């Protein structure tokens, strides 16, 4: 598909004066095409590096992987998945195929996301060349290649990386087929777009926004023939989406707990906005989306340049906001169709958010990254062109927007513990610590909130150690003391062995599907494990420990046995 789509390049959609003269030819000697390929190579390197670094799965990956390693193709197409997980059937089947060929380990599960992440870079080059001059293409590929969230999702066992590829391919289809009204072109556009909705839930926003933008253009121009022909591929997308929705997606309708989870994180647009606080939400989203998924904001705690003025400018998102605003203005003035095609998907996602149908939140807006990157890159090239040819800023500006993601990605290569941020967990490391040290006579107590990761990794590594699965006594415990009393049978079972391991998850305070209770006894007083360790220390002697940000392991000797 990529070969077919990238083989033909149309004239860029902006005005003739904006696109026929190369920035490279007129304004300097930087070989922007070479810079573009350097960024693509860096993007491939980052994704492959973190793929082979092979960090532990984090809990969301565990939840989805639990189904992928056990269910066959038909079971994956017949919800529910374990732990109330949701993912497009195309993504599930491709990952399942990798599991069947390469096994149940993390790298097999992450292979398809990796392929999608690398393919996105090459496909996006063709998209960017359609919309931008060489300097803009280089900036756009730099953002896509270096943004830490986009690198992360390219090596995560979730569907968000494939959603980026789906968006990129949808835009590539637009550059290939828009304005061509022969039946082969119309049917090809319709078929390829119809396939995409089976690999990404969110791509429907891209396709629908594209369809609205194109149709509105023809409607305003009263070009009825073009409007009629355009309905052919757009209706094919709609039919495919409807089939997918009624066969599969509606069975994944959002549960009350999940809506609540996103609501308390302010992931739904205030609709209609009725207060100053509501309007602040929109400004906050600009800041948040520049940070995630675009990775254009600096990490405050690591920013030390020696210049307070420079640090202030970099910490406040003046530069990315200015480039974004400039890009929107240039698009609106020069090509309103492109403006609508790139911006309408954002508007539709916001509208769905306001109706509480789709959260506007972090990983769920990753699919918007290619469109937003194009807008920011366009603004960058426009601002750079304002400076005289001999001015150094003309070359500094295109790279200024890339400093933050380049710095962050370099730090994450140097220290892989930083990769993924709060999603960098150590579930496998904790369990392997026990696996490598446990004796045949030992017993391992797995706390109730660490059972999903234990069950997955047992499937992968074939753990043989004896296990006591911890009871969840939260609902029958009014306070911390009662919680510990209710666990007395578990403690006594551990103490009946000479040596017992304790495996604690310090992050998870609720089971999947539960509505969070921030003030519950477990979350406030038990989850960190200190009370449990203190209790067991009165019964035996702690002789070993493994500690991380999310998982703790303790070994106790009970000498009276």
Strand content: 5-15%
Residue runs with pLDDT of under 50 for 5 or more positions:
1-12, 15-28
Summed over residues and divided by their number, the pLDDT gives a mean of 90
Count of DSSP H/I helices: 28
The neighbouring-strand order within the major sheet is 2-1-3-5-4
Spatial gap, N to C terminus: 66 Å
Secondary structural class: mainly alpha
Domain count: the total is: 2
The percentage helix is 55-70%
For the secondary structure, the number of strands is 5
Sheet of most strands: 5 strands, mixed
Q: Roughly how many Å is the radius of gyration?
A: 26 Å
Shape: globular
Short structural description:
By secondary structure, this protein is mainly alpha-helical. It has 2 domains: 2-7 and 21-423, no CATH class; 427-557.
How would you explain this protein's 3D organization?
The chain is mainly alpha-helical and 561 residues long. It folds into two domains: 2-7 and 21-423, no CATH class; 427-557. It is 61% helix and 5% strand. The chain is built from 28 helices and five strands. The protein has a five-stranded mixed β-sheet, sandwiched between helices. Strand 1, helix 24 and strand 2 form a beta-alpha-beta unit. Helix 11 (160-177) runs parallel beside helix 13 (203-221) and helix 18 (318-334) crosses helix 19. The protein is globular, with a radius of gyration of 26 Å. The termini are far apart. Mean pLDDT is 90; it is low at 1-12 and 15-28. Keywords: Membrane, Transmembrane, Transmembrane helix. The chain crosses the membrane at residues 30-49, 107-124, 130-152, 159-177, 189-220, 227-248, 281-300, 312-332, 338-358, 365-387, 393-410.
């Amino acid at each position: 598909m990529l070969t077919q789509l990238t083989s033909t390049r149309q004239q860029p959609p902006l005005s003739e004066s904006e696109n026929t003269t190369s920035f490279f030819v007129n304004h300097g000697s930087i070989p922007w095409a070479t810079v573009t390929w350097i960024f693509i190579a860096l993007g491939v390197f980052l994704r492959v590096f973190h793929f082979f670094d092979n960090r532990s799965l984090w809990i969301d990956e565990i939840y989805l992987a639990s189904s992928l390693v056990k269910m066959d193709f038909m079971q994956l197409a017949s919800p529910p998945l374990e732990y109330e997980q949701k993912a497009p059937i195309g993504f599930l089947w491709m990952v399942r195929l990798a599991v069947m060929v390469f096994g149940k380990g993390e790298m097999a599960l992450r292979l398809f996301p990796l392929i999608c992440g690398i393919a996105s870079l090459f496909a996006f080059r063709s998209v960017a060349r359609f919309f931008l001059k060489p300097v803009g293409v280089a900036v756009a590929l730099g953002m896509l290649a270096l943004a830490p969230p986009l690198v992360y999702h390219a090596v995560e066992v979730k569907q968000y990386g494939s959603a980026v590829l789906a968006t990129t391919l949808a835009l590539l289809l637009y550059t290939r087929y828009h304005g061509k009204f022969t039946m082969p072109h119309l049917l090809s556009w319709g078929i390829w777009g119809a396939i995409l909705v089976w690999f990404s839930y969110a791509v429907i926003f891209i396709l629908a926004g594209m369809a609205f933008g194109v149709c509105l253009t023809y409607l305003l121009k009263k070009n009825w023939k073009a409007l009629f022909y355009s309905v052919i591929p757009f209706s094919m997308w709609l039919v495919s989406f409807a089939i997918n929705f009624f066969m599969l997606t509606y069975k994944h309708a959002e549960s009350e707990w999940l809506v609540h989870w996103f609501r308390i994180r302010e992931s739904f647009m205030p609709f209609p906005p009725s207060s100053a606080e509501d309007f602040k939400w929109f400004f906050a989203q600009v800041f948040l989306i520049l940070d995630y998924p675009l990775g254009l904001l600096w990490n405050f705690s690591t920013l030390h340049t020696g210049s307070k003025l420079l640090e202030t400018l970099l910490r406040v998102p003046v530069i990315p906001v200015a480039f974004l605003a400039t890009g929107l203005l240039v698009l609106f003035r020069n090509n309103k169709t492109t403006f609508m095609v790139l911006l309408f998907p954002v508007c539709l996602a916001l509208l769905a958010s306001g109706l509480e149908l789709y959260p506007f939140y972090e990983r769920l807006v990753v699919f918007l990254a290619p469109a937003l990157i194009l807008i920011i890159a366009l603004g960058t090239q426009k601002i750079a062109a304002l400076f005289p040819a001999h001015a150094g800023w003309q070359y500094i500006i295109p790279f200024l927007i890339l400093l933050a993601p380049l710095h962050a990605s370099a730090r994450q290569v140097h220290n892989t513990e930083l990769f993924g941020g709060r999603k960098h967990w150590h579930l496998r490391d904790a369990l392997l610590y026990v696996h490598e040290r446990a004796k045949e006579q030992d017993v391992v107590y797995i706390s109730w909130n660490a059972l999903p990761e234990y069950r997955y990794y047992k499937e992968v590594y074939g753990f043989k150690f004896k296990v006591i699965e911890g009871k969840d006594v939260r609902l029958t415990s009014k306070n911390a003391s009662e919680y510990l009393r209710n666990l007395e049978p578990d403690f006594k079972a551990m103490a009946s062995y000479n040596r017992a391991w304790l495996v604690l998850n310090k992050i998870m305070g609720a089971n999947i599907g539960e509505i969070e209770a921030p003030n519950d006894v477990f979350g406030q007083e038990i989850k960190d494990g200190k009370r449990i360790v203190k209790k067991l220390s009165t019964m035996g002697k702690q002789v070993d420990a493994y500690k991380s940000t999310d998982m703790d392991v303790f070994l106790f000797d009970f000498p009276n046995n």
